[in-house]
Automatic annotation (TrEMBL):
<protein>
    <submittedName>
        <fullName>Epimerase</fullName>
    </submittedName>
</protein>
<dbReference type="Pfam" id="PF01370">
    <property type="entry name" value="Epimerase"/>
</dbReference>
<dbReference type="GO" id="GO:0004029">
    <property type="term" value="F:aldehyde dehydrogenase (NAD+) activity"/>
</dbReference>
<dbReference type="InterPro" id="IPR036291">
    <property type="entry name" value="NAD(P)-bd_dom_sf"/>
</dbReference>
<dbReference type="InterPro" id="IPR051783">
    <property type="entry name" value="NAD(P)-dependent_oxidoreduct"/>
</dbReference>
<dbReference type="InterPro" id="IPR001509">
    <property type="entry name" value="Epimerase_deHydtase"/>
</dbReference>
<dbReference type="GO" id="GO:0005737">
    <property type="term" value="C:cytoplasm"/>
</dbReference>
<feature type="domain" description="NAD-dependent epimerase/dehydratase">
    <location>
        <begin position="5"/>
        <end position="225"/>
    </location>
</feature>
């Protein structure tokens, strides 16, 4: 891969993938709506000559077509907010696939695990998908759209991430906790502090995603992007306090608390239905990746949290 375009390049996963591609010597085009954010991304990378940007609208297939012509691979990292998902997720899917199909491009879709619904234990890419939430059902319809036979020339694949963390993270459930501890102020933890859960460190995820994208036979399939194991909220907070020396209160928010906050906050109102994920501890099986790609990058939680918190503290 010599040239790639990253849609949603200034988001959490997008920025991690941009960094990984640049580290590999790939020429990267960052695609987004905000010129200020895209210029900020260029500045973060010290105006690396292999990084350029393209302004465009993810819901306008023609703007993607115009921007993505030189790219060998399209990385789709743009997303829609919970409050807009019902109206905008499928139009987003149609736009990106229309562009990829017109150009005959490989396209890597970054997604999550809502499609599985209530699950406990470990699941591989063939695990049954029985979503019971609105978001899960929408994500399953999104998958069907991506792999639809109507796209004759596009070559899509979907990578599925669990919850994640890292310096570029923006909208993960762990983000407010780490930002609060880094700033030495009282903060929240979304979910049960005792449940061991899977988290993937975003730089590790980016490595795996690009490794998959480079394999010619990886397309038209789902791929798991597993983390380094499981860890409880209590353990995360303990590690973060040891790293920073900050010990302000961290308040766990259960489903009832989130529901009450949702009366006043539209985003939290949407979080309620996926709170089951904070209690069930579903783990992504990485056997397929190990057999066909290679060893799974597994940055230890302490090391990943230390790198993340150091940058958050510098920003603060």
């Amino acid at each position: 891969m010599k040239t790639a375009i990253v849609l949603g390049a200034t988001g959490g996963t997008g920025r991690a993938i941009v960094s990984e591609l640049l580290d590999r010597g790939v020429n990267v085009m960052a695609f987004g709506r905000s010129e200020a954010k895209l210029k900020g991304l260029l500045a973060e990378h010290h105006f690396n000559q292999r990084l350029s940007y393209r302004l465009g609208d993810i819901f306008d297939a023609q703007s993607i077509i115009d921007a993505a012509k030189p790219a060998e691979v399209i990385f789709q990292c743009a997303n829609v907010s919970y409050t807009e998902m019902a109206d905008r997720l499928l139009p987003l899917g149609k736009s990106i696939m229309k562009a990829a199909d017109y150009l005959g491009k490989k396209i890597v879709i970054v997604d999550g695990i809502y499609v599985y619904g209530h699950q406990v234990g470990k699941g591989d890419e063939t695990h049954p998908k029985h979503p019971h939430t609105k978001k899960g059902k929408l994500r399953l319809a999104f998958e069907a759209l991506i792999f639809s036979d109507k796209w004759q020339r596009a070559q899509p694949l979907i990578v599925r991430l669990p919850d994640y963390y890292g310096a570029t993270s923006q909208n993960s459930y762990l983000q407010p906790t780490l930002e609060g501890i880094a700033a030495n102020r009282p903060t929240i933890f979304i979910g049960n502090l005792k449940t061991p859960r899977e988290y993937v460190y975003l730089p590790d995820a980016a490595k795996m995603i690009v490794n998959i994208a480079e394999k010619e036979d990886a397309y038209r399939e789902n791929w798991n992007i597993p983390g380094a194991g499981v860890i409880s909220g209590k353990e995360i907070i303990q590690l973060a306090r040891e790293i920073t020396g900050n010990r302000k209160m961290v308040i766990p928010l259960n489903k009832t608390a989130i529901h009450l906050i949702g009366w006043f906050d539209a985003f939290m109102r949407e979080v309620v239905e996926i709170m089951y994920l904070t209690k069930e501890g579903f783990i992504l099986n990485g056997d397929k990746y190990e057999k066909r790609i290679g060893p799974i990058p597994k940055t230890p939680f302490k090391e990943g949290l230390e790198a993340t918190l150091r940058i958050l503290m510098q920003k603060g």
